[in-house]
Amino acid sequence: MRMLTGMAGDSFSYQAGETVTVPDAIGEAWKAAGLAEAPPRAEAAERAAKDLRAQVQDLAARLAEAEADRDALRHQVEALAAQLAAAAPAA
After folding, report:
1. Torsion angle defined by CA atoms of residues 79, 83, 86 and 90, in that order, rounded to the nearest 10 degrees
2. Would residue 34 be called left, alpha or beta, if left means φ above 0 and alpha means ψ between -120 and 50 degrees?
3. How many Cα atoms within 13 Å fall on the side-chain side of residue 73?
4. Which sign, positive or negative, has the C-alpha torsion 28, 30, 35, 36?
5. pTM attached to this predicted model
6. Which residues lie closer than 8 Å to 14 by C-beta, 6 or more apart?
7. In which element (H, E) is residue 14 found?
8. What gap in Å lies between CA 25 and CA 40, rounded to an integer?
C-alpha cells in the first residue's frame, strides 16, 4: 500500500507517500478509510516513464530549434548594427 497520510503505532511508523506491505485485509481497511491506496503497477509506472522520456526528447528538440533561431536572429542584428555603424557619418 502507498500511504496517503502518516501513521504510527507501538511497533511501526509510516510516512505519507511511503509504500508498505501489510496483509490484504488491513490494506483494504486502510483504503476504505482513505489512509492508503494501492501502489502503481510496474507496467503503468514504466509506461508513464516512457511517456515522460518522449516528452523530454520533444522538448529538447524544440529547445534546440529555438536556440538556433535565436542565434540566427542575433547574427542578423549584429550584421545590421555593423551596417548602421558603417553608414553613420563620422563625428
Report:
1. -110
2. left
3. 6
4. negative
5. 0.49
6. 3, 6, 7, 8, 20
7. strand 13-14
8. 19
Q: Which helix (H) or strand (E) holds 29?
A: helix 24-33
d(CA 4, CA 35): 5
Q: How far apart (Å, rounded) are the C-alpha atoms in residues 14 and 4?
A: 10
**Each residue of 30-68: pLDDT tens digit?**
999 999 998 877 788 888 899 999 999 999 999 999 999
Kindly state the cell numbers that stand for 24.
Answer: 490484504
Gap between the Cα atoms of 62 and 56, Å rounded:
10
